Amino acid sequence: MHASGILSDQYHLYLICDGETCAKHGLTTADFVTGATKGGCRTIQYRHKGISAREYETNLLPLIDICRSAGTSLVVNDHAGLAEKYALPLHLGQEDALPSGLTVPYGRSTHGFAELALALKAKPAPAYIALGTMFPSPTKPDVATNRHVVGEYLTRTSLPLVLIGGITLDNVHELPKHERVYFAVIGDAFRFGARKEGIEKFVRLFAHELIHGQKG
């Protein structure tokens, strides 16, 4: 594990369980996470915009049990209080305030060098940096692609780097492979169907793509 135990070296896959996307596909977040862990995924972020902290916590609890049983790191998106309450790592967007006295490890999203510089000056320091967006993404259509700066990011920080934005089985080979680079995936996880088995298949094939550079 890198980054205080958040990121796994096994697949370099940082899978995002997005509550809204799961609902759109008719798959529960628990089934999504179950399929992902069965496929071997060891880093999953639970993201769910537009719901209350109480609703988020209700949804989070079964995911904690699933991930702990599988030895998978579960990352809380935005809800710092819940991350602290359950001793889980936290992910913050580039505009989210860093809570004072934060004790759990956290990652920070960035979209350019100015945001990277601010993130690296923060106290406590982030455990990893995320960089978006790699490819046109339906979840963030207004953000320009910037995969051309990945190499420069790696020279400006020694932290692990999570790449995000439109990454799929078909285009991940276009991104740099590096021991500190991880790949965040959201929508493409559903390419084999909105079932636990489909998510499991995606995770296994993603690992195969990274290791062998081919699908199938």
TrEMBL record:
One of its GO terms (cellular component) is cytoplasm. Signal peptide: none annotated. Residues 13-186 form the Thiamine phosphate synthase/TenI domain. CDD domains: TMP_TenI. Pathway: Cofactor biosynthesis; thiamine diphosphate biosynthesis. Keywords: Thiamine biosynthesis. Pfam families: TMP-TENI. GO terms for molecular function: thiamine-phosphate diphosphorylase activity. Coiled coil: none annotated. GO terms for biological process: thiamine biosynthetic process. This is Thiamine-phosphate diphosphorylase. The lineage of its organism: Bacteria, Pseudomonadati, Spirochaetota, Spirochaetia, Leptospirales.
